[in-house]
Amino acid sequence: MQASGVWLREPGLQAVLAMLEGGGHRALIVGGAVRNALLGQAVADIDIATDARPQRVQELCEATGLRAVPTGIDHGTITVVVAGVGHEVTTFRRDVETFGRHAVVAYADTIDEDAARRDFTMNALYADAGGTVVDPLGEGLADLAARRVRFVGAPQDRIHEDYLRILRFFRFTAWYGAPEAGPDADALAACAEHAQGIESLSRERVGAEMRKLLSAPDPAPVLAAMQAAGVLAHVLPGADARALAVLVHLEAGRPPDWRRRLAVLGGEGVAESLRLARADARVLASLREAVSGPAPVSELGYRFGADVGASAVLARAALLGMALPANWQADVAKGAVAKFPLCAADLAPHYAGPALGARMKELEARWVASAFTLGRDALLA
Q1: Between 203-214 and 258-265, two packed helices, what is the crossing angle to 10 degrees?
Q2: How far is Cα 188 from Cα 182, in angstroms, rounded to an integer?
């Protein structure tokens, strides 16, 4: 089988592969690039695996005039820079000892050993410079064709190596699994059994995985499985995935927004649990405020802007189990561009201090209630 695409013909990538192979070593593209190419999806990150040791990679770079940066040399990774673009080259590895969050690894000489330590069978696929795919485990291609996300070997062994793989399993199932099949039963059971291990992970790692999971086209079935297995409670205590399927249905035709979906999930201390960036935490707080309040649709657009206002309408309808209001998109858009026609100077010198603020707030409320129709003169009168 062949993996193909413009990405494979990229001169820098071919130069790195040629350098390693010219030095007498095996050089293969591995993981997500191969998987996505075979699925006909966009290829982003390209990882290269080789039997050359890191020191040897550096020597070959020096001999061929390429720049080597030891970005992860403790893990066997050298970044080879070609025309300003970095290419990660990692020596074949095998696990020696694992602790649930990281593993002690040793360099390996064969692709079979390297494949055996990877997380999922569909990620244990390799391709040479010409795109010919190698499946060392003999399972990856079949599982990819069936859209079956399975751990390499015993699920509990892979989870013990890194508990983040529990969340990665659900994310990969949401993105690459066959919706009608549901999560792999053995993997799901192992995730449920070891879910407590999630609490040993850094919140940053957990947050990154959840953002990617919630950005999938339809993460609702996977989140429901996470909740049923008791995994979601270890990620977001108090979260409830039941309204998510309704939200995804209402979102039809709109780009996914993980913050909107997170607002529907709910939960306690979400911003801290997932270490959200300040901007994302503000958006989430605005959505929760908008969803829980009685503000009309047009006011949501005015208070929160077009994007957050639209997300609030969708989230509110999903949580309340109600239909979307008629003309809601136009109403949100109308509110988003509305400008309150008064400023503080218009009320001076009749009002000052707290009284001025209270009067401005009262007049703004009247203006909003009029669907933004009251003009400056009417408000001053």
Answers
A1: 110
A2: 10
Span 97-120, pLDDT tens digits? 655 555 566 899 999 999 999 999
How much is the average pLDDT of 341-361? 91
Q: In the prediction, which pLDDT does 343 show?
A: 93
Q: Convert 322-335 to b/e letters by CB count within 10 Å (16 or more is b).
A: eeeeeebbebbbbb
Pairwise CA distance, residues 219 & 248, whole Å? 8
Helix, strand, or coil (residue 91) = strand
Rounded to the nearest 5 percent, the helix, strand and coil shares of the chain are 55, 10, 35
What domains appear along the chain, each with residue ranges and CATH number? 1-145 (3.30.460.10), 339-380 (no CATH)
Please name the residue ranges forming H helices in 40-184: 54-64, 111-116, 140-145, 155-161, 164-176
| CA dihedral over 26, 32, 36, 42, signed as positive or negative | negative
